[in-house]
Amino acid sequence: MSHFRRFDEAASTAVVDAVASAEGVPPRRLEPLYDTIDPDALDALVTDDASVDVRFEYEWYTVRVHGEGRLELQSNVATTVTDTDPSAASD
Question: pTM value?
Fold first, then answer.
C-alpha cells in the first residue's frame, strides 16, 4: 500500500505525521525518527530543490521524500496467504 502526501512543514515533521496517520496512532507512539535518520540533516537536504530525493526505512515503511514537498510511504508489511485446503498438506 502506498500513501502520497504534500507538505509545507519541515520534512522530518511531515514524515512522522504521515507515518502516524497511516498507522492510525499519535506521533508520540512511533519510534523516534532520529533512531533512523538525522532529522536536522533531512530538513537541511529537503528544500524546494526538486532534484532532491531521499529514501529510507522508518517503522514499517519505505519513506521517500522529494525536494518539492512531496512525501511517499510504501508499506513494507507483507501479506501472508495461508493455504487452508487440507488436501494440499504434505504427508
Answer: 0.79
